[in-house]
Amino acid sequence: MNDMYAIKPIRLKCLLPLAVLLCLALGESPAHAQSAVPDADGSADIEFLTRYRDSGIVRYDHDDNADFLFALARVRKLNNRWQAEQERRVYGAHTSITYRAPDRVTAADVFEHFRSQIADAGFDDVFYCAGRSCGDSNKWANVIYSEKRLYGPDANQHYLISERANQLLAVYVIKRGNKRVYARIDLVVAQPESSSVKSWSDQLQASGRVGLPADIAVIKERSAKLSQVVDWLSRSGKTVHVVGHAYGAGSVDAMKKKSLDMAVLLRGRLIELGADASLVEAHGLGPLAPGGKPGEDRLELLIIE
How far is residue 300 from each of residues 139, 145, 203, 284, measured CA to CA in Å? Predict the structure, then answer.
């Protein structure tokens, strides 16, 4: 009787090594097995890119009329401002995805997974960097992408930007100090300037509002688009409200002043292009009307009937 019961613990002990072998056969270790992170609501993969196995989408954004600045070189401080040594601004349909990959893998594993697919899809490399040659990871996370989860050791980062016809695609992969691995994908299908020139005026007429870049220098580069807005305003005789939105570490009053200064500059540009000064009003709301991308300064033109 006692011998019969003595056999059972031996059989139970055999189960642990069997479980370990099963995990190893499946490519997992019991200590590092990890379920995929649930996908963010409304998210989807880019059609020609398959995600790394067991990855989940933690952030997703799509904008058919985006204004996106791609980094074409390492990040460094230029003229007292952190930025990429070379940049390219593209206007068009922008899809942006951040994946979280399993902790057990390296950033290089995930990066090469995407890089091979990008090459197979017919994209040509424009710029590539890895590790410290990319510059400060903190600046990639907080200046280039405004996504703090992408900050990690400089040695653990990989970046690639590639081009195919009218499409630009960037991949940034980082393994953080807490072992989490993130991959950020940005794809812009560029609009021909001839078709996108109409978009600001069209949007303003259709919905009574249009979002513009906060950078006045960028707006000046696109004078043709702004001139069409002015032409329509002159014909319609409508009053346009230029509204600035600003975010940052300062006080609400400081952000309201900053946003008003932005709006005043844009108002001045509209008047330079021929708008009736009496029909253009500037307002600064600071951080009081959140919208757009979190933490990103922006300008709006509003028609209030």
Answer: 27, 22, 11, 10
Amino acid identity, residue 257?
A: K
Per-residue CA distances from 182 to 23, 169, 196, 252 (Å): 24, 17, 33, 33
Closest CA to 223 of 269, 180, 189: 269
CB contact at 8 A, 33 and 44: no
**pLDDT value at 266 more than 80:** yes
Tens of pLDDT along 129-162?
999 999 999 999 998 999 999 999 999 999 999 9
pTM (global) more than 0.90? no
Q: How far apart are CA 180 and CA 216, in angstroms?
A: 37
**Domains of the chain, earliest start first:** 56-190 (no CATH), 193-303 (3.30.1330.60)
- Phi, psi of 124, deg, nearest 5: -105, 135
Beta bridge partners of 209: 302
Yes or no: say if 168 and 190 are a contact pair by the CB < 8 Å rule: yes
Residue for token digits 């702004």? 226
Q: Where are the beta strands (DSSP E) in the chain?
A: 56-71, 75-78, 81-84, 87-101, 124-130, 157-164, 167-175, 181-190, 209-212, 240-245, 280-284, 298-303
Nearest to 241 by CA among 208, 198, 274, 206: 208
Sequential DSSP letters for 15-82: HHHHHHHHHHHTT--TTT--PPPPPPTT----TT-PPPTT-EEEEEEEEEEEEEEEE-S-EEEETTEE
